């Protein structure tokens, strides 16, 4: 009788493990941008094979930093990116660069229609700065485009050059680079977090 109970327990444990392994990849590789609907990526613990985004801040020039896509621990693409207005104080609201840490990705879309951010955009969670004195809100990975991703005519919707890597704290990419990043993430899987490193 004990052998039967042990066998049943082993069978149930094996079923639970298989169910978990079967369901986990859908959560980790949710594509928040594929439909263009703006629905968010699922948050969760990153698996060793997960896709990750890494923003590597350049202390010499915050507008000449990099954003990298990693898959299985290997870099797949690196793009020039900026954050802030050249201010390294991550507690300086609307001026300072992004605080270090793991930022949960809340949503990604190709057709964001905010007051300042439009088009291709990845929205990040709100997060306190390093001293805890300010919560950084309305933080995105984005570019300067119209809602449909096309180039506009006003300065806020048109990429004019290196000065456009400046932002109010968001991670800013060239329009061609953010489009390439979205295509890559559609292929390799969407991350759940952005890791910001000094």
From TrEMBL:
This is L,D-transpeptidase family protein. It comes from Streptomyces atrovirens. The keyword Heme does not apply. Residues 63-186 form the L,D-TPase catalytic domain. Pathway: Cell wall biogenesis; peptidoglycan biosynthesis. Keywords: Cell shape, Cell wall biogenesis/degradation, Peptidoglycan synthesis, Transferase. It holds the Pfam family YkuD. Residues 54-81 are annotated as: Disordered. The keyword Hydrolase does not apply. CDD domains: YkuD_like.
């Amino acid at each position: 009788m004990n052998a039967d109970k042990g066998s049943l327990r082993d069978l149930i444990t094996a079923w639970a493990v298989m169910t978990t392994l079967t369901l986990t990849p859908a959560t980790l590789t949710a594509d928040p941008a594929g439909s263009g609907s703006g629905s968010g990526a699922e948050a969760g613990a990153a698996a060793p094979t997960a896709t990750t985004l890494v923003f590597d801040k350049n202390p010499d020039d915050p507008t000449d930093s990099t954003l990298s896509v990693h898959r299985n621990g290997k870099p797949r693409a690196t793009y020039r990116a900026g954050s802030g207005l050249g201010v390294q104080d991550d507690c300086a609201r609307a001026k300072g660069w992004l605080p270090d840490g793991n930022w949960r990705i809340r949503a990604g879309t190709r057709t964001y229609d905010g007051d300042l951010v439009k088009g291709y955009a990845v929205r990040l969670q709100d997060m306190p700065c390093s001293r805890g004195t300010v919560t950084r809100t309305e933080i995105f990975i984005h570019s300067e485009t119209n809602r449909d991703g096309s180039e506009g005519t006003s300065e806020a919707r048109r990429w004019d050059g290196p000065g456009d890597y400046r932002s109010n704290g968001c991670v800013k990419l060239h329009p061609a680079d953010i489009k390439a990043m979205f295509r890559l993430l559609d292929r390799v899987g969407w991350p759940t977090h952005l890791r910001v490193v000094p």
